[in-house]
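User: quick one, fold this
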Amino acid sequence: MTRTDTPVLLLTGPPRHGVARYAADLAAHVRALDDGARVLRVDDPGDLPDAAAGVGRAHLHVTDRLLGASPDAAADLVERLAAACRLTVTLHDVPQESDGARNLPRRAAAYARVAAAAAGVAVNSRHEALLLAEHGVLPAGRAHVVPLGAAVPDGAAAPVGPDAVPGAAPGSPLVALVAGFLYPGKGHDDVVRAAADAADLLRAAGTPPGEVAVVAVGGPSPGHEDEVDRLRADAEARGVALRVTGGLDDQAFRTALSGPGVPVAAHRHLSASRTLLDWGEAGRRPLVVDSRYAREMAALRPGTLALYPAADLPARLARAWADPAATTLRPGASLAPTLADAAAAYRAWWAAGARPTGAAA
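Assistant:
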């Protein structure tokens, strides 16, 4: 075992939770670069302060929804943890307007407490760093940005087989694919409406599609099970079939993403989305509603996203139905930075003392 300057990497919460999974994936890549790095798994987040006592330095991926029953409870926990060790954090699911008038100030205040307790704060996009400043969580320039890493060793997107992009012809299905948990505001409503309108556009052009469907690749987020029935009723009223796959294992999820249909990410409040990487890793080039974050990711991984103004989704769906090859990535398209790149960036940040972005050396 070699000497390491890497903090103890804390893992907690349900292993299938998106933030917990990313923390574990990243920890494995840090360990691949630094065999002296220690990973400490603590199943119950409430046990973190006791488990971290005496470790010296530690790093934790933080989302309030994973760490406590309320934003304040999560902040309480992180403050106790920071009292037990020198703690750096990566903030996920940062406060933003989509939290609503009641939850936004509560979450912003809790995240501000977390940031104040931590010795260093990282986020996964410049957009998130700006959100922290805009909502009073952390002053501009104080959050270190490490983009989410793609889970592909060489950064190359997977090839997509010809069955995923059948040639469009009158009578062929018009299918839109939406990946990830189903919950209000995720964009499923927008895609259902756009699919119905796209079918109307195609009929008017003399190229009517067959079945019109939206496939939710994933299940409802806990507490939002009723959303499926509401969305299905709205879809049926518009002549759109709604299919919900439910939770899938990794292989089935990847297979569904690489299958026939137009990939769409219509969530208007993305701030750091693993789903965009899921599409790329499956060899797909999704339609992504234009936003500050989407533009940042399109610049980071050129050619991997097709941005559209929100009002243009019906026309873009119709165009993608007519040219399905446009929904796949070109051979050899790069998804870098990878998880290995992200691990190296974190090690450099920790070695530099986890100073804020722009701090003097």
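User: anything notable?
Assistant: Residues 100-117 form the longest helix (18 residues).
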